[in-house]
Design a protein that fits this description.
alpha/beta; 13 helices; globular; binds phosphoric acid mono(formamide)ester
């Protein structure tokens, strides 16, 4: 393992080992300090609660020291493109930023959201790719334009835990579940990193995945092809639907997330106008959950209550959103332990 940029860089066996390590770490007393004497930079171009807090706490619990930087806030504004004349508002180039930082730290975590301006450019993950290109220490993706692999791994861990819940010691937990990834209405377009990474990881782990969204909100074609390939290799299945009335039927897991239409990248008002007709239908409510196989409800958070999901669902016994957030801590500790030697 050199970087942790997306789950499909690793075979599922290695991902599964990380889940096992995270489950061990969750149970452990925390005496192991594999990061003792080491620092890890956490570079946040965007806001965060879970990622920032869980990374800082995780590094501390592993014996290390987190160094949090916010380009344009607590550190200089950054240019990531090669060969540009830097006579605009960017003060420092990413090349020096990374090369200086790695004289101090053993790994660099990066959060850099999609700007939702230029689809063809942003689907290449330009800022994260620049970090990976310049760094000789491991780079950890803390949510980029296209992927949020730490979230997806916490999600896979949460599903594994939930499938094993209420079983006696002699019963083996099922490995596969019928998982629904459903789009939900939100007042403005959001990036696709979470649904991309969730669908990819669910396919790698061989879950039977249903992806529901209104027409015009398809995920990236190349990514879908990759998801289908992994699903087939893992013995899972994948289906797509634009029919929200049928999407919840018989599933074991409901994973809700809103995302923007790639057709309206750079035109948020066009997206907002298009999505307005989906407001009443595309919300996870009690009636939708009743169509499921007593599914548990997942969301990466933050979530807008009574917009994406009703109070009744998120506050129900079937909601595992807080466990999911807790698992970010454990899986990231497992990833850092593996990555930072
Ligand atoms: N789910 C997630 O990444 O949360 P934050 O944006 O608060 O870090």
């Amino acid at each position: 393992m050199t970087n942790f940029l997306k789950t499909s860089d690793f075979p599922v066996g290695q991902l599964s080992n990380l889940l096992n390590s995270a489950i061990e770490l969750k149970r452990s007393t925390g005496d192991d300090k594999p990061l003792a004497g080491k620092s890890v930079a956490l570079v946040f171009f965007n806001p965060s609660l879970r990622t920032r807090a869980s990374m800082q706490v995780g590094i501390y619990e592993l014996g290390g020291n987190p160094v949090t930087l916010e380009p344009g806030g607590t550190s200089w504004t950054l240019e990531h493109r090669d060969g540009v004349v830097m006579d605009g508002d960017k003060t420092e180039h990413l090349k020096e930023f990374v090369q200086v930082l790695e004289r101090y730290v053993s790994a660099i975590g990066v959060r850099t959201f999609a700007e939702l301006k230029d689809w063809e450019l942003e689907r290449t993950d330009p800022v994260l790719s620049a970090f990976a290109r310049y760094a000789s220490v491991p780079v950890i993706n803390l949510e980029s334009a296209m992927h949020h692999p730490c979230q997806a791994m916490a999600d896979m861990m949460t599903i594994r835990e939930q499938l094993g819940r209420n079983l006696s010691a002699s019963e083996a937990a099922p490995k596969r579940a019928k998982v629904l990834l459903t789009w939900a209405w939100h007042p403005k377009p959001l990036p696709m990193a979470v649904p991309n990474s969730f669908a990819l990881a669910a396919a790698q782990f061989g879950h039977d995945l249903r992806i529901a969204h209104p027409e015009g909100f398809e995920l990236d074609d190349e990514l879908i092809a990759e998801i289908e390939r992994h699903s087939s290799e893992a013995g899972g299945s994948i289906e797509f639907t634009n029919n929200v009335d049928e999407a919840f039927e018989g599933v074991d897991v409901v994973y809700a997330k809103s995302w923007g239409s790639k057709e309206f990248y750079g035109d948020p008002n066009g997206d907002i106008r298009t999505r307005s007709s989906f407001r009443d239908k595309w919300i996870v409510d009690e009636a939708m959950m009743q169509q499921t196989n007593n599914a548990f409800f997942m969301h990466c958070l933050p979530v807008r209550r009574n917009v994406i999901v009703t109070d009744g669902v998120i506050d129900s016994a079937n909601s595992v959103v807080i466990d999911e957030a807790e698992n970010r801590l454990h899986i990231q500790k497992a990833i850092m332990t593996e990555l930072i030697k």
